[in-house]
Description:
This protein has about 350 residues and is an alpha+beta fold. The chain has helices at about 25-35, 85-95, 110-120, 150-165, 180-195, 200-205, 210-225, 270-285, 320-335; strands at about 1-5, 45-50, 55-65, 65-70, 80, 100-105, 125-140, 170-175, 230-235, 240-250, 255-260, 290, 305-315.
Amino acid sequence: MKLCQLAEFPDLPRWPQIAGGMPTQTHAWMQARAGLLPPGLPIRLYAVESGGRLQALAPLCAAGGWLRELPAMFEPSDLIAADEPGLAVLADGLAAQPLPLYLERLPLDSATLPALRRAFRRRGLVQIQPAMPTPLIRLERQIADVDALFNARRRADFRRAERRAARFGDLRYQIQAPADAAELTRLLAEAYAMEAKSWKAAAGTALSADWVQGEFFRRFCRAAMQEGMLRIALLRLGDRTAAMQIACEWQQRFWLFKISHDLAFADCSPGQLLMRHTLQYAAAGGLQAYEFMGSMDGWTRLWTRDVREYCQVRAAPFGLAAMKMAAKSAVRTLRGRL
Length: 338
């Protein structure tokens, strides 16, 4: 195995085949990130090859004197490796280059952490700090009815919401895996238009209002469709769309990226009803977990208290950056004792 820097972003057939991990490590996610890099911020593709195949990959960029992940929509991610030997070579290569490394939200149980610690031993410092977790619902056994996961009061809330929703017309749930560009364009247009009627529009965070985020998810959804993992879920009340989700079904898990509902239907909690439906879909399909991506919002506590833990990682070769890291760590320790 050898470390190299690729001149071009690798295509899907060359992408390292990973077991486990997250959809934010897939070719679909990374190529969408790479396609939206600001001008003047070139990508650095650190790769490990063996027998003409990529075993590990780190798509990074240099900014502010640090080697960083590509802009990520504040989603957790990780280095990409097919196996631990490839990851070890990649970590050694990152430790040998001169810039300090910053990974924003790395899974706390990732094999990358021990690999970086070994690579930077006698070369520099590795600093770990907590990062925002993401909620998840574990589905370790097949569940016929997900209402069994909730108490009597919560089940009554669902029934009450369905009765209120029925006043607007027939309830129709759909979970779509679009098969072509025309179907995807139609579904995304419906989802984006519905989200523009949510609270996110006023906050400026709707996909139709935030150009970078909106374009990112268009690119990601196109690629995710080609990889067969894209799911777009809709709840229609009569002839109107009341709620939507953009998600992935990948590695035996349901990964929820976007959810919104039309404020006109807020009284019947359409987002909650759609969440219950896609959770039932995941459970009936024998999936292992339902993962909430992005930031950890308070409403997720209605669904689960279980979380996936993450950490920030700073790894710097001995030098000025390592000295600054050590000084800041000492100050934090001192403040904690006062």
